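ok, trying the design again with the full structure, not the truncated one.
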């Protein structure tokens, strides 16, 4: 099977797309449940235990039903009916049900098939760009992390440590494993990865504190620092400036467009994580070529 995938680019792209579609269904679970899990953890940590008194001894707290990425089973948000396996096939079930719950006929958010399709397409593009091998596997996993982080940040303006820190450490570990190839420098070498993680974090950290010093406002969150550090760990410090510049340009254009269309108030914050994620994904696939072409514009022509 591996020989077929290695020898046939079409077979590899098709297999990668199918895996990406299935993983996209799981990413929907992560995007929805992880913020709830974190909120429950924070509430449990901030709520003091009841103090016993002579009149009312401390009662044992009622155990909470388990809620994680595995249990309970997925259910309809409207009628809470569990979703059967036949109705949980990525993308196909949504099309077969015409975007409605099989039980109560409530509309299913277009977000679910969109995330599944985005996961499949991004995986297919990586498979096409890198070909069969470890660099493709690394880039595919990075893309999945970035999709989950993007939609969580859009919904909650939150980039959870539960995703950014594993992505960072995986990049550092992959750099030590030496899985990069001559055609694609992903993951980066250990020196570039360590430098990328450190510079990526410290650069946005410095911008954050300088902006707060000048304006008295916080322009971004600490999750943005960690996300850029993770991208630096995977792509090396050389790609940090292109990522920041590309994300800033796209963010400024989108922000100005939303203000003009009056879909965003001037004082309302816009999450920066999705722009970092998109710029990092583009840099992961075409970053060196983009930088080379830009520098070629200034090369002397004889």
């Amino acid at each position: 099977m591996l020989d077929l995938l290695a020898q046939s680019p079409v077979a590899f792209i098709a297999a990668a797309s199918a895996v990406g579609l299935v993983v996209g269904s799981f990413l929907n679970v992560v995007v929805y449940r992880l913020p709830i899990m974190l909120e429950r953890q924070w509430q449990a940590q901030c709520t003091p235990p009841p103090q016993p008194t002579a009149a009312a001894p401390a009662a044992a707290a009622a155990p909470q039903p388990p809620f994680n990425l595995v249990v309970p089973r997925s259910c309809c948000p409207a009628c809470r009916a569990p979703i059967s396996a036949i109705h949980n096939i990525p993308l196909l079930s949504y099309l077969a049900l015409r975007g409605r719950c099989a039980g109560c006929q409530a509309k299913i958010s277009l977000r679910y098939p969109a995330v599944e399709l985005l996961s499949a397409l991004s995986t297919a593009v990586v498979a096409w760009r890198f070909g069969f091998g470890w660099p493709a596997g690394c880039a595919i996993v990075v893309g999945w992390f970035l999709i989950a982080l993007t939609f969580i940040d859009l919904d909650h303006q939150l980039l959870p440590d539960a995703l950014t820190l594993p992505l960072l450490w995986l990049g550092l570990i992959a750099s030590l494993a030496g899985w990069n190839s001559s055609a694609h420098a992903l993951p980066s070498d250990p020196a570039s990865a360590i430098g990328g993680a450190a510079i990526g974090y410290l650069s946005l950290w410095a911008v954050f504190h300088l902006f707060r010093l000048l304006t008295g406002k916080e322009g971004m969150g600490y999750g943005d620092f960690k996300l850029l550090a993770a991208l630096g760990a995977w792509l090396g410090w050389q790609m940090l400036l292109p990522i920041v510049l590309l994300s800033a340009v796209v963010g400024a254009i989108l922000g100005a467009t939303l203000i003009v269309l009056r879909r965003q108030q001037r004082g309302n914050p816009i999450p920066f994580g999705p722009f970092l994620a998109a710029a990092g994904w583009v840099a992961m696939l075409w970053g060196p070529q983009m930088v080379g072409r830009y520098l070629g514009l200034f090369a002397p022509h004889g």
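Keeping the full-length input from now on. Residues 9-46 form the longest helix (38 residues).
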